[in-house]
UniProtKB/TrEMBL annotation, chain A:
One of its GO terms (molecular function) is transmembrane transporter activity. Gene3D superfamilies: ABC transporter involved in vitamin B12 uptake, BtuC. It comes from the Bacteria. It is found in: Cell membrane. It is a multi-pass membrane protein. Its main location: membrane. The lineage of its organism: Bacteria, Pseudomonadati, Pseudomonadota, Alphaproteobacteria, Hyphomicrobiales. Keywords: Cell membrane, Membrane, Transmembrane, Transmembrane helix, Transport. GO terms for cellular component: plasma membrane. It holds the Pfam family FecCD. The chain crosses the membrane at residues 23-44, 87-108, 120-142, 149-170, 182-203, 224-245, 270-300, 312-334, 340-359. This is Iron complex transport system permease protein.
Automatic annotation (TrEMBL), chain B:
NCBIfam families: PRK13548.1. Belongs to the ABC transporter superfamily. The keyword Nucleotide-binding applies. Residues 2-242 form the ABC transporter domain. This is Iron complex transport system ATP-binding protein. GO terms for molecular function: ATP binding; ATP hydrolysis activity. It comes from Mesorhizobium qingshengii. SMART domains: AAA.
Length: 367, 262
């Protein structure tokens, strides 16, 4: 929009049509890939320890330098077993949350829908807490049967139940009322949190401490085992999302019109709901309540490349992954050697951003 | 050909459309007229596969209820009364959504420029880069029509006629664009497609419709050519308004008829 004047004479040759932002979107996605690489390197090198990822990677590639073998062993442990799983988990969770936000916004036809805001995360949280607290007692058969998958699966079921109820309440005749959606989200989140509260009441001291830190949201304690249990779920959910892009674009015109265009609307809606629940459930299971990624990332990207989900979804995954890595780098270093829960970092930066969207869009968002 | 036989629609236990027989033939503009709340839009929604109905609807000989959304979308495109968007799409992006099914019917290479051609068709040349939300109601309606035209650009596909369903296509337009849009509909029919349009303006209906279906309290009150249907008695009965068809108003009250367009 802004660059029309400078692009004027060249435009006829470079960009085929006015109002077509796909070329710009491709460039942005390319830059976001680059950004993610930088964020990964930054995350691998920064932290409480002065272990240098550059050295470790160089050693891994070219063999250890003579003379610093002892140091390298320690550094190598820090980089491969502490920072690398954390970076991978951060990327998975960041991508999952951002893409889930974008898909929910498409589904509800509303830029304010976010798994954290409308209670889906709270529902996932309830499922996860149930497994943590009752895993040794009431739900013991379940945890015995499912092993490490019990936690993400319970979080998925909690998120799925919340999303389904929310959709039934907020959407009537294919139209979603924003006010109903946000208010129903508040009610559902309150209910989920109350039930979570009962579980916390039942928890013993050790579980209590675990739960508190987990609920604030953190990537600490990332292990290869955790990645193995939730990674496939998130990757699978993310891989399914691009197939929804065309349908979500059509859905922006309303459910009826999407149907007129030949989109199987019911199937699209249920796929989206299951995908979002899986991605959010898995994220919540490993990292607790990390808020606002799902609303900030898609919103920023829509300003840049427009709302076409074919570009918005992959771009959201890339930017979500990068931003969460940066937030985690801040969380790890700002009070080093202690560590701030990452949920606090995303909330402190995300909540004002959300208020800014509300102020900017007050006329557009018909509450 | 679209054949509807004994079509009834209930919404929330209330009968909105009751036993309607309806035909839309390729080459013709079929207009549905009637007072507010007479069931026109509900009937069109049944015809487009959006609402459940009893009775039988056949689209080019196939039972509508047995067809998949994507199959129906190849045969007909639907223009709703109004469309709001919650995201900042450009006009071009909205029009391009009409191509989502991929059966516009133009040659493969021509698809890329189709949004521009459709926009030119509805007199919105140069609007491609504008934001949909910043347009006036009438301009938005024409953008939507351009999108609908993209979906069934060729009135005939694989030897089968295709259809435009237009729900009050001109209600928010100025008179120039009313005529442009109605001419697009007529042209689509002349080239072998079929048009079903809900209209409120009886003058435009008389001018463009080949057949008129008058709806009243959910039922079909009359069917036929404009000359057959538009009578003083029918208008009084259906619209509850004592008007005279084809009589000049008394005194010096100005009136403008679209039929006088040069």
């Amino acid at each position: 929009m802004v660059d029309q004047s400078i692009a004027g004479p060249v435009k006829a040759m470079t960009s085929p049509s006015e109002g077509d932002r796909s070329a710009r979107a491709r460039i942005v996605i390319l830059l976001l890939c680059l950004g993610l690489v930088i964020a990964v390197l930054l995350s691998l090198t920064s932290g409480a320890s002065d272990a240098s990822a550059v050295d470790v990677i160089r050693d891994g590639l070219f063999g250890a330098m003579p003379g610093d073998a002892a140091l390298s062993a320690r550094d190598s442990l820090i980089v491969y077993d502490i920072r690398l799983p954390r970076v991978i988990l951060g990327m998975l969770v960041g991508a999952a949350l951002a893409v889930s936000g974008a898909v929910m916004q498409g589904l509800f036809r509303n830029p304010l829908a976010d798994p954290g805001l409308v209670g889906v995360s709270a529902g996932s949280s309830l499922g996860a807490v149930a497994v943590i607290v009752l895993g040794g007692t009431m739900l013991a058969p379940l945890t015995a049967l499912l092993g490490t998958l019990a936690l993400p699966l319970a979080a998925f079921c909690g998120g799925l139940a919340t999303t389904l109820v929310l959709y039934q309440v907020a959407t009537r005749h294919g139209r979603t009322s924003v006010a109903t959606m946000l208010l129903a989200g508040i009610a559902l989140a309150a209910l989920a949190m109350a039930l979570t509260g009962i579980l916390i009441f039942l928890a013993d001291d050790r579980q209590l401490r675990d739960l508190t830190f987990w609920q604030l949201g953190s990537l600490s304690g990332a292990t290869w085992a955790k990645i193995a249990s939730v990674g496939p779920v998130i990757v699978l959910a993310l891989a399914a999302m691009p197939f929804l892009a065309r349908g979500l674009n059509a859905l922006a015109l309303g459910e009826a019109t999407a149907g007129h265009l030949g989109i199987p609307v019911q199937r699209l809606k249920y796929t989206a709901i299951i995908g979002v629940s899986a991605a959010v459930g898995a994220s919540v299971a490993v990292s607790g309540g990390i808020g606002f990624v799902g609303i900030v990332v898609p919103h920023l990207l829509r300003l840049l490349i427009g709302p076409d989900n074919r570009y918005l979804l992959p771009a959201s995954a890339l930017l979500g992954a990068s931003l969460l890595l940066l937030a985690d780098a801040v969380a790890r270093t700002i009070v080093a050697p202690a560590e701030l829960p990452i949920g606090i970092v995303t909330a402190i930066s995300g909540a004002p951003f959300f208020l800014w969207i509300l102020l900017r869009k007050r006329g557009v968002v018909d509450l | 050909m679209i054949e509807a036989r004994d079509v009834s629609v209930d919404i929330a236990g209330k009968r909105i459309v009751s036993g309607v027989d309806f035909d839309a033939r390729p080459g013709e503009v079929a207009a549905i007229v009637g007072p507010n709340g007479s069931g026109k839009t509900t009937f069109l929604k049944a015809l487009s596969g959006e609402l459940a109905y009893t009775g039988r609807v056949a689209l080019n000989g196939r039972d509508l209820s047995a067809m998949k959304p994507v199959e129906i979308a190849v045969q007909r495109a639907v223009l709703p009364q109004a469309t709001t968007l919650s995201f900042p799409f450009t006009v071009r992006e909205v029009v391009k959504l009409g191509l989502v099914g991929g059966r516009s019917g133009v040659l493969p290479g021509e698809d890329a420029r189709l949004p521009e051609r459709a926009l030119a068709r509805v007199d919105l040349d140069g609007f491609a880069g504008r934001f949909y939300q910043e347009l006036s109601g009438g301009e938005q309606q024409r953008v939507q029509l351009a999108r609908v035209l993209c979906q069934v650009w060729a009135p005939l596909l694989d030897g089968q006629p295709r259809y435009l369903f237009l729900d009050e296509p001109v209600s928010s337009l100025d008179i120039k664009h009313q005529l442009i849009i109605m001419n697009i509909a007529r042209d689509f029919a002349r080239r072998g497609g079929g048009v079903v349009a809900i209209l409120h303006d009886l003058n435009l209906t008389a001018m463009f419709a080949d057949r008129i279906f008058v709806m009243h309290r959910g039922r079909l009150a009359a069917t036929g050519s404009p000359q057959e249907v538009l009578s003083d008695d029918l208008i009084e009965k259906v619209f509850d308004c004592r008007l005279k068809v084809g009589v000049l108003p008394a005194g010096n009250v100005p009136f403008v008829l679209p039929q006088s367009a040069a």
